[in-house]
Amino acid sequence: MHTVFVIVAPIFALIIVGYLCRRTNKLGDKAAAEINKMVVWLCLPALLFKVTATATWAEIWHPGFIAAFGAGALGMFAITLLWRLRGGHGLVASSIDGLSAGYANTGYIGIPLCLLLFGQPGLQPALISSLIVVCLVFALSLMLIEIGLQDEPEVGRAVGLVLRALAKNPLVVAPLAGAAWAMTGLGLAEPVMHLLDMLALATTPCALVSLGAFLAEKQPRAQASPWPLVVLKLVGQPALTWVLAYKVFHLPEIWAASAVLLAALPTGTGPFMLAEYYNRDAGLISRTILWSTVVSLLTLTALLYALGYAQ
Questions:
Q1: 102 neighbors 73 (Cβ within 8 angstroms)
Q2: What is the pTM of this model?
């Protein structure tokens, strides 16, 4: 547990910093929303552009791992989405809840965890999983949210409205622009890389401070329980990924173990960014992130023992 705690502790610290700053009024009542806007419009787009602009085909093309981890994340997203829709929730809320069950914190926790366990070879699966989570699962959720927001009855006009909305969304434009730039083979100038690095490094701290500030606000008493989403994320996704990695695709040990461990990570801040940005039930999502992170101290430690990476 010590290994997991060392990696996860800074997440709690940043959430607590945001919480205390808001409770003591060092941050105003609009701080959570304004900081989140900075993440959505500046920091995360810079990170997405940098990752896709600098990735090479050789680094990311590992089809077995992509299929196992990607199908696990998308599968849990789809299961949660359908469950919420059948329960009478709208497409927007259901998409955000689905993202909460399939959006692993691969960047802030996954990369250092894989490096600690597997050394430098562990960096590759962690980076690929980050691309899958952000550029595939996150993008799919964004698309469904925009579809859910449209009330245009005519299909053609509705599709046009969705495409225009997506074309204006920095979280969609940035990775596409980065991928297009990578295809030119030109690379990025050093000053541009420094600018992107500074913005990208601020993504997680700002998102976590924003989350803490939001949690400090008074929440309505009647709130949905986060525990179904927590269980789906911490148990459902790694279980599905384990079957795919070990039984279906028969991945080499380091790739199979990485896929399962990365799938078992707690919910990242992406769903909260969207819930806050689209004025949805950010209270449920914030508590899902918080409790999945807390409980992951136990579930990740148990998984490390089960896979033979802890003594």
A1: yes
A2: 0.82
